[in-house]
Amino acid sequence: MKVFATAAALFASLTPYATAGYVTMSGTNFELNGKPFYVFGTNAYWASETTLSKTGLATIFNTMAKNDLTLWENGKATVNTGDNGLGYFDLVVAAAKAAGVKLVVPFVNNWSDYGGLGVYVQQLGGKYHDDFYTDEKIKAAYKNFIKTFVQRYAGEETIMAWQLCNECRCTGSGTLKESGNCNATTLTDWMAEMSSYIKSLDSNHLVASGSEGFLNTDKSVYVYSGPSGVDFDANLSIDSIDYGAYQAYPDTWGVATSEAKSWGVKWIEDHVASGKKAA
């Protein structure tokens, strides 16, 4: 069964409640220990590189919604598991657990910020941004990072879900260009392969694609035309993808201010329909 969620960047102060246990699914809803689990949170892209003390991290997490937090972790071919590598993330997990916060953890960023998937391509001899999704050597290096990371935290209830990639697309923001051969099939096949691999290592946690949620139903409208290889419905149909998250950047996507409200309502309704169809 598939559930769906809107990706949001929010700070909230909520009454703490017990968060022990793994988040699961029931129909189109998240559940925690058999009860509905409603997600409010913040995109804490900085947390994976923080050098804050345990006290500093605890202060930050205790000001956030005690429910969900999105983090970015970027890997290289050689995984640093020491105190100045994954050891930093151990501190993040410990602070989140103490504050009753669940974590959603992307393994890599599509964009060049904080390294990005282009690091894999450039270090391992690739030529195009989308080589990340097709080059066997690059995919093997990514799987190596996933294995190291997932096996370290497979038994950690503080983690709600793994994301394959933050806003994965055929194109990126660095110097690498698109090959011209990347499409919705390319990304969907890659998502199926990587999500299945994660499930083979870890049956406790949910897995999501991490895409922006572009639909592929109307070629005349940008966000509905499957741009840059993203097809929300196709991604959500993958057996090893548990839920879909979607985002909304109306100004960036060319929506007129006067139409933003009606556009936003339709965007939400269309993704709700996709979630129900996949459930």
UniProtKB/TrEMBL annotation:
Source species, domain of life: Eukaryota
A single GO molecular function term of this UniProt record: mannan endo-1,4-beta-mannosidase activity
InterPro entries with a match to the protein in the record: GH, Glyco_hydro_5, MAN-like
Signal peptide: 1-20
Catalytic activity: Random hydrolysis of (1->4)-beta-D-mannosidic linkages in mannans, galactomannans and glucomannans
A GO cellular component entry from the record: extracellular region
Domain called Glycoside hydrolase family: residue spans: 127-259
Pfam family, any one: GH5_mannosidase
Entry EC number(s): 3.2.1.78
One biological process term in Gene Ontology: polysaccharide catabolic process
UniProt KW keywords: Glycosidase, Hydrolase, Secreted, Signal
SUPFAM superfamilies for the chain: (Trans)glycosidases
Record-linked Gene3D superfamilies: Glycosidases (3.20.20.80)
Major enzyme class: hydrolase
Compartment list: Secreted
Family: Belongs to the glycosyl hydrolase 5 (cellulase A) family.
Protein name, per record: mannan endo-1,4-beta-mannosidase
Lineage: Eukaryota, Sar, Stramenopiles, Oomycota, Peronosporomycetes
